[in-house]
């Protein structure tokens, strides 16, 4: 399966494989940690609508946004337990089950959006996705969405590695996100997504890092004065379906679900890509200081760790990723 096609046509929504019927009409639970204003939530709602429509009401999907069924680590656990059926999860969190799945969530492993697209359309990623399925008892990465390029927010500019020194910065609770602040002398502080706004407001942490769409959706700009465009991680969100749920669907309905999730993952990718092109000016219009950043000094500081052999992916896998093209 090809996972992305940002500027191409969406995958066909339905593939009728066999005449098998579903066991019963039921409801699937689709849980994630993103705010209702985020493009990923809109895509999840559209997936719910399309799945019910294309299964002629045999199945419905209820969407649970904004950590309402738990934090991201709990959702990953629930997927394996069968308490949730579909989740969005970052590749860094997927890496807790299968290390190589996290590779592109490590800083500067992807050069640009074209490189991101090349990877997720490659046989290399198909192998990684199969490794994840094997490690999780069959949980399937059906689709991948572009989540955005991560940037640092703080109450000061962050223009060089020296500006990161001793900065107490919130990061997600996954190893991929700790490397960048550690390499630059900051103090990484793992914290649940739902707790970040208050922690910034109260000064529990000095800074955080996220894509522009998330900074807007979570309103972090209300409690941080500066956005520095470090672009240190190119993020991906996996749509993952529980093996427990897949076993309860007919071949026909599995194919419909895969098609719907591919289609709506593309919807989210297009929306996020478009928003990134507009948000720098939007933040400036809100009075936020947005700083262009020379990424080269940051890349130089981080580079030795990426080939150290101490990360959850091999230097050979990393080199295979680097060998993929980043232009048409």
Can you give a write-up of this model?
It is a single chain. This protein is α/β, with parallel strands linked by helices and 328 residues long. The protein has a single domain, classed as 3-Layer(aba) Sandwich (D-Maltodextrin-Binding Protein, domain 2), CATH 3.40.190. It contains twelve helices and nine strands. Strands 1, 2, 3, 4, 5, 6, 7, 8 and 9 form a nine-stranded mixed sheet that branches. Helix 1 runs antiparallel to helix 10. It is globular and about 55 Å long. It starts with 25 loop residues before the first strand and ends in a 6-residue tail after the last helix. It is found in: Periplasm. Keywords: Periplasm, Signal, Transport. Belongs to the bacterial solute-binding protein 7 family. It comes from Meridianimarinicoccus marinus.
Mean pLDDT: 92
Helix proportion: 25-40%
DSSP E strands, number = 9
Radius of gyration: 19 Å
Quickly count the domains: 1
Structural class: alpha/beta
**For the report, how would you describe the main beta sheet?**
9 strands, mixed
Specify the CATH class: Alpha Beta
What's the helix count? 12
Organism: Meridianimarinicoccus marinus
Protein name: Sialic acid TRAP transporter substrate-binding protein SiaP
Family: Belongs to the bacterial solute-binding protein 7 family.
Main location: periplasm
């Amino acid at each position: 399966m090809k996972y992305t096609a940002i500027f191409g046509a969406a995958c066909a929504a339905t593939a009728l494989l066999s005449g098998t019927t579903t066991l019963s009409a039921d409801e699937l639970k689709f849980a994630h940690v993103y705010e209702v204003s985020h493009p990923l939530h809109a895509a999840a709602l559209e997936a719910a609508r399309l799945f019910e429509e294309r299964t002629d009401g045999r199945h419905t999907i209820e969407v649970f946004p904004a950590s309402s069924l738990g934090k991201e680590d709990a959702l990953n656990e629930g997927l394996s337990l069968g308490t949730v059926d579909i989740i969005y999860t970052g590749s860094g969190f997927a890496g807790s089950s299968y290390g190589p799945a996290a590779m592109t969530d490590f800083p500067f492993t992807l050069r640009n959006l074209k490189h991101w697209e090349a990877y997720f359309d490659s046989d290399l990623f198909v192998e990684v996705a199969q490794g994840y399925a094997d490690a999780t008892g069959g949980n399937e990465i059906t689709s991948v969405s572009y989540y955005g390029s991560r940037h640092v927010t703080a109450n000061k500019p962050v223009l060089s590695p020296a500006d990161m020194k001793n900065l107490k910065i919130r990061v997600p609770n996954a190893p991929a996100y700790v490397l960048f602040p550690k390499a630059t002398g900051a103090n990484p502080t793992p914290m649940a997504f739902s707790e970040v706004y208050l922690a910034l407001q109260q000064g529990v942490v000095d800074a955080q890092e996220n894509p522009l769409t998330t900074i807007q959706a979570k309103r972090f700009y209300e409690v941080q004065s500066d956005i520095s465009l470090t672009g240190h991680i190119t993020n991906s969100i996996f749509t993952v379906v529980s093996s427990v749920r897949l076993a309860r669907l007919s071949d026909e309905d599995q194919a419909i679900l895969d098609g719907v999730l591919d289609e709506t993952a593309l919807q989210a990718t297009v929306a996020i890509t478009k928003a990134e092109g507009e948000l720098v000016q939007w933040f400036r219009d809100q009075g936020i200081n947005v700083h262009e950043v020379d990424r080269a000094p940051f890349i130089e500081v981080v580079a030795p760790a990426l080939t150290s052999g101490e990360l959850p992916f091999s230097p050979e896998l990393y080199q295979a990723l680097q060998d993929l093209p980043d232009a048409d």
